[in-house]
Every structure is written in structure tokens, then in C-alpha cells.
Amino acid sequence: MNHYLKNEFMKIKPENFGGDFDDFLRDDGIYEDVVAAAIKRVVALQIKDEMKRRQITKSEMAERMHTSRAALDRLLDPDNTSLTLSTLGKAAQALGKKLRVELE
């Protein structure tokens, strides 16, 4: 094991051994950010896939949502995690879908 890896390995807390990935992310203080980014990526992909399936262009989708193309591009950008329930609701309605939000 090279020197750098040995130093990084020694920084790992013993309580993380045998733990799960969620615990690791929580310990690093990034769990919520990682989950938010993952959810956004999934939602953006679902919307893109449904638009493609229905052959809806971005311009048409923006018009159906009563929003701008720029706003739609932000919604479809998997790296942009700032979105509102209102925007998601408009996208769902434009695609003939229902939006469901739940807490676990």
C-alpha cells in the first residue's frame, strides 16, 4: 500500500467498518445533498423519457407547462437541484401524469 493510501486509510473511523454507505455519507455530512442530487437525476430522467416517448419537444413542453424554455432546461438539468413542487406539478400535468410526494 502506498504512503498516501495508507494515510487515507488510517483516517477512516473504526465505527465505519461494517457500516453501510448511508452511514458513511451521514458521517461526512453529505447524506442529504447526495440524496437530493440522486432524486433530481431520477426525476429529470423520468421527465425526459416521457417527453421522448410522447414525442414532445422542449418548446412544446415549456408551452404546456406555461413556463420558459430556460425554466424547463433547469428542470431537466440533473445537476440543478433547486426545483419547486409547483414546477414538478406542472411537468406532471403537462405529461398527463400525477405527482406523488411522500415521506419515509
Structural class: mainly alpha
By oligomeric state, this entry counts as: single chain
Number of strands: 0
Q: Describe the global form.
A: elongated
Unreliable residue runs: none
Task: Describe this structure as you would to a colleague.
- With 104 residues, the protein is mostly helical.
- The chain has a single domain, classed as Orthogonal Bundle (434 Repressor (Amino-terminal Domain)).
- It has six helices and no strands.
- Helix 4 crosses helix 5 (69-76).
- The longest helix is centred in the middle third of the chain and has 23 residues, at 31-53.
- The termini are far apart.
- The mean pLDDT is 84.
What's the helix and strand layout?
Blueprint: H1 3-11, H2 21-27, H3 31-53, H4 58-65, H5 69-76, H6 85-94
